[in-house]
Design goal:
Blueprint (H helix, E strand, L loop, with lengths): L22 H6 L8 E2 L12 H14 L1 H5 L8 H13 L9 E4 L1 H13 L5 E4 L5 H7 L5 E4 L2 E2 L2 E2 L1 H7 L6 E3 L13 H14 L3 E4 L23 E6 L11 E4 L2 H15 L4 H11 L3 H27 L9 E2 L7 E5 L6 H10 L2 E2 L1 E2 L12 E5 L5 H38 L1
Parallel strand pairs: 1-13, 3-4, 3-7, 7-8, 8-9
Antiparallel strand pairs: 2-10, 5-6, 9-10, 11-12, 12-15, 14-15
Helix pairs in contact: 2-10, 5-6, 5-9, 7-8, 11-13, 12-13
Length: about 425
């Protein structure tokens, strides 16, 4: 006899109530509408992908080690690739053994593994404010209590870390051209943070997907150079090669490395060995030494175009005054709108005028600042950037006119009521 039950038999875990869809992924759906200039997505430009180098490396791997490349592989990662990562970081002043390198399926997996290994329900996790939305999403299923560490344009304040993050499992920080703010932590602040964290017994998770994308001056040495045993360092090949390869890495102290490996074994056994061998084949020839500068040159032009467009179209004084700072690298501008302006309401007006961006509120773990937004400049040409920022400014004026009209209508209703 067929069952008459109509409700779902699936009972979701309690933790799923804390999971939410990515605001960015939802907004990206808007970019599929005809005529929309997208300044929303945090995607690298597909024009930078080294298609020929990947094709040639793939052919060599299939010619020289086809069966090894297509077989199961070590959970820790392909040995020569781990050696390359350790040697590259040594060039940046960060001493690491290949035995401390764990190859991950994108640095996003690294964040998930960190959360799985270090976070218990109710434990505190210190974050910048704002911070990377993808990190919040990776950590949320493990049910932490987020603590926002106050900061300024130089990065989180060491004294704020000492006072507000006591007992936290770790501080999560993006020191180079942060997503979403574009800010970088200065060399002096890095040393101060490391010292304060060490004194407070709060380890640091240092995430560096954008460090190679500098346009003016190379960033300072990693925070990890100041407190090696107390820092987990994450890196990625997505921004300098191609995100579709899904390759990142974690450099972890011995005290946590083994548990990260075990967590990865439970998640996916290992990152695709085929992809690892392809990437190593590309890297071992020194390809990045010539390839990354071409990416920088391309993105620098687009960054400068966005800065020029913002200066030309967004007011910096008066009732619609906006604030921003040109980033020294990375992929994003962070714009502070006038107090009281909700960027989600502005997005509706902006899409109507043919441009999309990401509202800033989802990037805050604590009290959100609704009058902020993120703009990406790397996937859009200079002409489109100019048109997009002009449309954004027009949308801001539209929102202001609506607010003035609504205020006038409210005043008129009040006067009519008083006149009765």
């Amino acid at each position: 006899m067929a069952s008459t039950r109509t409700s779902s038999p699936w009972q979701l875990a309690t933790r799923t109530a804390r999971m939410n869809p990515s605001a960015i992924r939802e907004i990206l759906k808007l970019t599929e509408l005809p005529g929309i200039i997208s300044l929303a997505g945090g995607l690298p430009s597909a024009a930078t992908f080294p298609v020929e180098a990947v094709s040639e490396a793939t052919a060599r791997v299939l010619r020289d080690t086809p069966r090894e490349a297509l077989q199961y592989a070590a959970s820790e990662g392909f040995g020569p690739l781990r050696e390359w990562v350790a040697a590259e970081l040594a060039r940046q002043g960060l001493a690491a053994s290949p035995a401390q390198v764990l190859i991950t399926t994108g640095s996003q997996q690294g964040l998930d593994l960190v959360g799985k290994v270090l976070i218990d329900a109710g434990s505190r996790v210190a974050v910048e404010s704002p911070t990377y939305l993808g990190a919040l999403q990776a950590f949320v299923p493990y049910e932490p209590e987020f603590v926002a560490v106050a900061g300024d344009d130089d990065g989180p304040l060491a004294e704020a870390l000492a006072s507000s993050a006591a007992g936290a499992r770790f501080l999560y920080a993006l020191p180079n051209f942060q997503n979403p703010s574009g800010h970088s932590i200065t060399a002096g602040r890095r040393a101060e943070l490391a010292a304060a964290a060490a004194n407070a017994g709060v380890p640091i998770v240092e995430d560096n997907p954008y460090g190679d994308l500098w346009y003016d001056v190379a960033p300072p040495a990693p925070i990890a150079t100041h407190w090696r045993e107390g820092t987990i360092y994450l890196g990625s090949f997505s921004k300098v090669l191609a995100p579709g390869l899904r390759l990142g890495y974690v450099i972890a102290p011995d005290a946590v490395y083994a548990k990260l490996v075990q967590a990865k074994q439970a998640a996916d056994l290992h990152t695709p060995g085929f992809n690892q061998r392809i990437v190593h084949e590309i890297l071992r020839s020194g390809f990045l030494d010539s390839h990354v500068p071409t990416i920088r040159n391309r993105y620098r032009v687009q960054r400068d175009a966005m800065q020029a467009a913002l200066v030309a179209h967004l007011p910096t004084s008066g009732p619609l005054a906006c604030r921003w700072k040109m980033p020294g690298g990375g992929m994003f501008f962070w714009v502070e709108l006038p107090a009281g302006v909700d960027s989600e309401a502005l997005l509706v007006k902006a899409v109507a005028r043919g441009v999309a961006f990401v509202p800033g509120a989802p990037f805050f773990a604590g009290a959100a600042r609704a009058n902020t937004l993120r703009l990406s400049f790397v996937t859009v040409g200079a002409d489109a950037i100019e048109r997009g920022i002009a449309a954004l400014a027009a949308a801001l004026r539209d929102l202001r006119e609506d607010a003035v009209a609504a205020g006038a209508a409210k005043d008129a209703r009040r006067r009519a009521e008083l006149a009765r």
